[in-house]
Structure formats: C-alpha cells, structure tokens
Amino acid sequence: MTTQLKIDIVSDVSCPWCIIGYQALNQALTNLAPDIQADITWQPFELNPQMPKEGQEITEHITQKYGISEQQAEQNRAAIKERGLSVGYEFGNRGGGRIYNTFDAHRLLHWAHEFGKQTELKLALFDLYFQQSGNPSDHQQLLAVVESLGLDVAQAKQILDSDKYTAEVRKLQQHYQAAGVSSVPAVIVNDKHLISGGQPTEVFEQALKQIADEA
C-alpha cells in the first residue's frame, strides 16, 4: 500500500543547500517508490530580504555576512560544488557572481503552484541562478524562464508589474518564521516533522520511512 506524504520545502532560489537538499530528497523518494510518494509544495524564504535590486558581489557579501575570510568563502564554495556533484547537481562557476533579491521569484512560484508547475519553475530558477549566473530579480530573465516552461508569459508579466501575491508570500514567510524556521532548506513532512539542511539521501530515506510507518 502506498503512503502519501505532504512535504513543504521552505527555501530560497539563491540557496545552494536548498537544491542539494532537494536532489537528495528526490533520490530518497525515488528509492522509496512506489511504497512512499510525496506531494511537494515550495514555501518562501528570503536569505537576504534587504538586498537591493542590483544585488551585491557574492564573495563580498558572504565575507561580510558570516565574518569569514575570502579564502574560507572559496573553500566553502568548493565544498558546496563537490556536494552538489554527489547528488547529481552541477553548480556553474560562481566566481564573480552576485547575490540578488529573490522576492519576485517567490511571487511567481506562488502563482505557478496553481498550475502544478511549481517544482518545475523552482528547479529552472535554481538553474538560472546557479548554472547560468542569471539574475532572479530581473523581470526579463524571470519571464524567459516562465516561457520555457510553457506558462502564461502575459499573466506572469502582469504579476511582476503589480504587487499581486505580495501579501500571500509575506504571510507564508511570517508563518514559517513564527514556526521557528530560521535557516533553509527546512523540509516539513505532514506539517509536523522537520528535516533541516541539505541532508544526505540516506538520512531523508530513513526519516521518510519512519514517518510513513507512523502515518
């Protein structure tokens, strides 16, 4: 008998550990199929809500934010790249990249959920940022991604040009912050079990099996 799990992934499109965590989670779900299946919803989180539209140079940002040296930032980047490859995700060359404001991307993700295309859009936005050194706050780049997925570009443009879904996204962000989510990814299963961070595949597998047994 198949156990259906509800999974909410609180994450940001500029968070490398979020795509690493998703890849591992997806591998775990593949290994557990068909006994365990999941309905995944992406929930909004901004790593840098105060970031201006033009963004900030990535190494400068990371050294300032975490109080580490450029060398440590470079080592962290190399470790992330290696971890990504271990779960089948290749990060592009992030040297000289920038960190951007991602709020508009979250508004589009909220919209895409209505059409069952949220995960596709999320993965395409990860690729835009991490593989193509794209800017997830740039409306033209966002619309190009929307078009590539066969979503309605005119409707997406209308959303970006207005404040549509701003209140909804802010409310969701506040909900998860109030629930204690302060770092991402946060994988919440059946509204009560939290698996935090970019865990290895086997950790997700073990946790999902345990939760499914209790369901």
UniProtKB/TrEMBL annotation:
Signal peptide: none annotated. GO terms for molecular function: oxidoreductase activity. Pfam families: DSBA. It comes from the Bacteria. This is DSBA oxidoreductase. SUPFAM superfamilies: Thioredoxin-like (SSF52833). Residues 7-209 form the DSBA-like thioredoxin domain.
